[in-house]
Amino acid sequence: MTTPRPTELSADEARRIALRAQGFLGAPDRKSGVRGILRHLGAVQLDTISVLARSHELIPYARLGAVGRTTVEQAYWKDTHAFEYWSHAACILPVEEWPHFAFRRRAYRNRPMWGHELPDGAYDQVIKQLTIEGPLTATELGGAKKTNDWWDWSGSKVAVERALMYGEVVCVERRGWKRVYDLAERAIPSDLLHDQLDDTECLRRLVRLAGQSLGVGTRADIADYHRLKGEQVDAVIADSGLVPVTVEGWAKPAWADPAALATPPRGRHRTTLLSPFDSLIWERARTERIFGFTHRLEAYVPKQKRVYGYFAMPVLAGGRLVGRVDPAREGRTLVAKQVTLENKKAVPATAQALLEAASWVDCTNVRVERVDAPELREPLTQAVNALLS
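-> structure tokens emitted (389 positions)
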């Protein structure tokens, strides 16, 4: 069998394909809503940081606009439409993909070393308690920690997290950011509750899903999406349904979703603030390659060493990343603590993104504090005020 000749894409075509694949180009699918976004992306990353909102809320907001935050939570968790598991990181995943993470559950079961020691009897006790009492948090299972140190887990927390990794227990929702655990046999539909697929079938599916969600990507991009190993991608990519392409300016070969190549990407561009954990930009090297934009989360960087701010959110407008906003909230005011703009042309879009975000989180005012280019602070403030009036 001959290998098909790679399709040649310009850098601009690749960028637009990626934007459409991630739901930022063309009319948003409001009918499918939040659940449609989850299935379209294949994974929505979770994170503890909450500034405007938590990241898993920001993902559908960035694509659909001001969807209600309660609506977001219900869409994920009600009627067993999703489960939480380890993908790109801790992610919300469509429930129908449960069988395709069997390879990872098997790997965890065969893992020889763990960071926390499992006390004798703790695992059986957790399973027994969940069986009798139903869905519970780690606190309700006997306590999440032995001390105030975040890493010092209690025996019941170690046990229930081990059970989650093995697939015997599922996180069925977050309650006050705490995981709520239940038995997989109750939480996962019976037709999906199996580990029958071998590793090759699982990997082939996840590689194809990653390619569809990215539109076009290198081997490293595709591997990173669900945190696969490069050799795992290599073993299945030829049979994944993705097709080889070359992209102008990309040093490495790439693969694309055939459906993404079938029609040229057209439509309206979304203007919005992006979570640093958004799958459009969560891989730094890819973001630099596609957008020429250096993106780094600085929440864990010492304050004096931060360049762009604690939770700098890239501004997407016209299919480009045109700046960053480090936001905060003070009562009913959204505060742009630090704003970095590529140029003056980015001012109107940034003002629009700030106003929409403010409205979404029930803020009635926006205050711009610092702009890295001081001469742009007044134009941005004026643009914001004009939209407020």
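The two ends are 65 Å apart (CA to CA).
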